[in-house]
Design goal:
CATH class of chain A: Alpha Beta
CATH superfamily of chain A: Radical SAM ThiC family, central domain
Distance between the termini of chain A: 51 Å
Strand content of chain A: 5-15%
Structural class of chain A: alpha/beta
Largest interface: A-B, 182 and 182 residues
Oligomer: homodimer
Strand order of the largest sheet of chain A: 8-9-10-11-12-13-14-15
Largest sheet of chain A: 8 strands, parallel, barrel
CATH topology of chain A: TIM Barrel
Chain lengths: 622, 622
């Protein structure tokens, strides 16, 4: 039973500060004179060669002592597991996944009258270890920045030069950020989702049709966080979901989110109308005790909004939304999610579970974007946000969907206004409907923009969206695509030091430090593999030109020659104009360089032994 | 000797109007009651089963008569081909590509004193057949739209409800659009590049290191236009480029662009300082006679700007730009491109070649975006635009490069202002530097945005950007990515009827017309292949749910049930609230549906015979 381990190439795991915050440090070629680059690390101990990984034991409980020391929790006898928790009609577990060994029999909850939410502490002025961890993590261990010039357009965000624990506390207290951290998930490494922090991404996983090897199930999580998923939603349905969820939580260093209505629906045989508050409530307790960090609750689907959605081109595309819509129609009343919302909140605060208020009426096509149904629900989500905040419970808001570019900003503006700046958690949005098979890109375009406008977390979309179930490669492509979209948003918002990694990679590119380029990229393996498809020879990794242009046409090489020339003349770049007078020297130098380069290039090309399909075309620089 | 042929699946080639404008018509399932969807078609006769393809003969000369009938051209003895035209030291062509049979020995040029540019005709109030062709093509054969509500934010563009030949003439006359159409490339199907027309994309191709099979070279063009490239740039270098270019032009239905300085540099042994105006001028004539439709000319690289670029993180990344920079320094004078610009314009107007004024100083990294060097050059490009317009020569302007999202709009605004609304032709821009291997996406994000802001043509970027040479698959991914970015821009700008295809696909999606979904998508093969990886059974193509959720959780199915219920009650959607009273019927109906669906689903799942990696997770709708 194994999962994917091993350090990400070219980098090593470090632990920074008193809270031992996990980060990744990318080391560059010694000759470069460049310092290591620290990057945000979501991958947990799995990428730490020094860590001992045993999924049977689960991860270390980083937060256990922090939680206990607050003195406001009690343990109690866990709710008894029922066969239907695993989608079974009887107690027989044959063919199911094996139960996690040593399941906690006495989970934690808030003492009577207590509230263990991070928001509650924040509002009482308490800076928790979780907040300290987040501050260190968001700063990537750097000290206050003097050297970097702030740049970017933040659309009204309040991004500080330096994140202090007090800033984190204040953001959580105001509801502008959440730290999803169920007290029964002490294995999680604290992270913040908020407009004034780095943009985060979520990856969805789900159990397989035939789940038997739990390591394979856990590896879906491990694989997602290896490439950068900040949180993971377990959208499993069908059999064995309780046991599978236990395996995932015990081995997850990132917050885990779920949509409890799915499991509740399974318990009533898949018939939406048979759902009841009791079944749902029991499911919330079941998952709360396991340690789920945030729940998607579609409480905004109100009876009066359903007819608005029925008129649409694609109706209701949210599963949870359609389930509740059907329930509402069948019973002709408001959903139990809406009617029992405050009771749900009571449960949330006893475990510090964050709300992810679901957008059950989000548009599923360009035609339905920003319509009456969507915004009506958003207003209700705003109402519910303030109701949850009354009890100091953390909230984020889910958003669309399919939205053309010119309608994206309105979504962000309305959400900020209606939901009091509670973090926005959007899916894409997809900016066109006509590219199935490429919807990680149609949505990446929208995700980068809405992230720039202020969305705090982006839910990934894979190439298989609308078509089928993503495989391992699809998940990686989806995560990396969203990671680059989130980073593009951080750059545009002007997050301090976001550009450090871009600059380091660009310098490596300019100086032909190929390995540094690979190691600084979001996906080093793919970068190197693409490079080697054209120039596999080892020498090519130090060649002072690349396969796209060759030595004669290498613009970077020419620029370097120009610089060297200036240096030789002991002149600043500004001296070029005069320097040009002795241009004959440039000619001589570069003639030699070109000839030498040509020999080297032809040697390398021969080494490939294969024809190059596109030749010198198909690359950006002309 | 063959190239890729055959119709694009699910669609057939049609020819519309008196000018027989080629379009593609996607036919949907008869049962759907949906009309065929007409889409813009760049693929030429290669996707027409009725067309006889013979690359030895070249394509039919659609425009030949139009050009002759204008009575302002003369034929003359072509410039004699020299060995160095093919990068050879001697006349020996062994190992080279075979020459195209029946090369035109007497090319056309304007009669003395005449000007054959489309802009010249436009400014004299003449509507050419090319302009008529473009009008029909941009309208996709539709009549004036009454039924569509215009939507979108065009940022000051002037997009008409309906494109008339007179509108095309006026746009060309004002310099806001170009119709690249060298009189020696009569095989081209006229197309317009302009802010008020559909956003276009360009693909780059280049000759292979070892070119022998000319069909393989021609197929790079055919493959690019099959997936949607509106123009193709031949960026070949090295040997056989003259002959390869001849094969490409004679078989190309789209305008071909080149960067003549590349070939000129080859002729002087790759030593930039040895370039002369005479060598360059001779190269322009050589390519003009072959029929190249637009030339990238880096005349904006002025001596005084070079020191600004040398200070950058990535210096000069444009090949043409670096070549000219080196020449300027070596000779300490303004480039021959700048000094002889008006003479170049004389040549352009004699063949109707459009300028693509190159941005030799574009930023090659986030750090260098929007800097002094870049914008200084842009101002010079503005000056040159107006100089070219004095002689009625068509102009477009090349743009960046690497630009973070918050700095993209400034590029568009400055270009519109400085270059008098001449069409902008941008590369990406890439919105971050940290994702080599995914730069089709980092740039697709920027491309969609700048296309929305007003860029007329987007130069594609492939996944191999910065790393290696794209293969056939990379080219397809690059083209499709840019096609979806351009379409997202058309939607956001509010092009009339741009949303027709999105709506048709979304209706197909909602009604589970899988084949229609595939056929309406930009890449039907990939869409179907992804679908079949999860549910290969034929029945799955008509299954009324998809693999992501299964029948119990299928939101679209539930919405449909809700609608059917309303219909049964003979009520409008608005009647749902009352209808809800008899919700028991919904319950009954859906209970049966769910059970039936479950059986069907399990049968289909069994049919796959394989475990589904990600299970029900990893898809957008919760």
């Amino acid at each position: 039973m194994t999962v994917t381990t091993g350090s990400i190439r070219g980098s090593k795991k470090i632990h920074v500060g008193p809270r031992k915050v996990a980060m990744r440090e990318i080391h560059l070629e010694p000759g470069s004179g460049e310092p290591p680059v620290r990057v945000y690390d979501t991958s947990g101990p799995y990428t730490d060669p020094d860590a001992r990984i045993d999924i049977m034991a689960g991860l270390q409980q980083l937060r256990r002592d922090w939680i206990i020391e607050r003195g406001d929790v009690e343990d109690y006898d866990a709710r008894a597991i029922k066969p239907e928790d695993n989608g079974l009609k009887g107690p027989d577990r044959s063919g199911g996944v094996q139960p996690f060994p040593n399941v906690v029999q006495r989970p934690l909850r808030a003492k009577p009258g207590a509230n263990v939410s991070q928001m509650h502490y924040a509002r009482r002025g308490i800076i928790t270890p979780e907040m300290e961890y987040v501050a260190e993590r968001e700063n990537l261990g750097r000290a206050r920045l003097a050297e970097y010039v702030r740049d970017g357009q933040s659309w009204g965000a309040s991004i500080p030069d330096y994140v202090t624990p007090e800033f984190v506390r204040d953001e959580v207290a105001r509801g502008r950020a959440i730290i999803p951290s169920n007290i029964n998930h002490p294995e999680s490494e604290p992270m913040a989702i908020g407009r004034n922090f780095l943009v985060k991404i979520n990856a969805n996983i789900g159990n397989s049709a035939v789940a038997s090897d739990v390591a394979a199930e856990v590896d879906k999580l491990v694989w997602s966080i290896r490439w950068g998923a900040d949180t993971v939603m377990d959208l499993s349905t069908g059999r064995n979901i309780h046991d599978t969820r236990e395996w995932i939580l015990r081995n997850s260093p990132v917050p885990i989110g779920t949509v409890p209505i799915y499991q509740a629906l399974e318990k009533v045989g898949g018939i939406a109308e048979d759902l009841t508050w009791d079944v749902f409530r029991d499911t919330l307790i079941e998952q709360a005790e396991q340690g789920v960090d945030y729940f998607t609750i579609h409480a905004g689907v109100r009876l009066a909004y359903i007819p608005m959605a029925a008129k649409r081109v694609t109706g209701i595309v949210s599963r949870g939304g359609s389930i509740m819509a059907k329930w509402c129609l069948a019973h002709h009343r408001e959903s139990f999610l809406y009617e029992h919302f405050d009771e749900i909140t009571e449960i949330m605060k006893a475990y510090d579970i964050a709300y992810s208020l679901g957008d059950g009426l989000r548009p599923g096509s360009i035609a339905d974007a920003n319509d009456e149904a969507q915004f009506s629900e958003l207003y209700t989500l705003g109402e519910l946000t303030h109701r949850a905040w009354k009890q100091d419970v953390q909230v984020m808001i889910e958003g669309p969907g399919h939205v053309p570019m010119h309608k994206i900003k309105e979504n962000m503006e309305k959400q900020l206004q209606v939901c009091g700046e509670a973090p926005f958690y959007t899916l894409g949005p997809l900016t066109t409907d006509i590219a199935p098979g490429y919807d990680h890109i149609t949505s990446g375009i929208g995700a980068a923009q809405i992230g720039w406008y202020g969305t705090a977390m982006l839910c990934y979309v894979t190439p298989k969206e609308h078509l089928g179930l993503p495989d391992r490669d699809d998940v990686k492509v989806g995560v990396v695509t969203y990671k680059l979209a989130a980073h593009a948003a951080d750059l545009a918002k002007g997050h301090p030091a976001a550009q450090v990694r871009d600059d380091a990679l660009s310098r490596a590119r300019f100086e032909f430090r190929w390995r540094d380029q690979f190691n600084l990229s979001l996906d080093p393996e793919t970068a190197e593999q693409y490079h080697d498809q054209t120039l596999p020879a080892e020498g090519a990794k130090s060649a002072h030109f690349c396969s796209m242009c060759g030595p004669k046409f290498c613009s970077m090489k020419i620029t370097q020659e120009v610089r060297d020339f200036a240096a030789k003349k002991n002149q600043a770049a500004d001296g070029f104009l005069e320097a040009g007078l002795t241009g004959a020297e440039v000619a001589q130098a570069s003639k030699a360089a070109a000839l030498k380069g040509m020999e080297e290039m032809s040697r390398l090309f021969k080494a490939t032994g294969s024809e190059l399909y596109m030749g010198a075309g198909g690359r950006e620089h002309d």
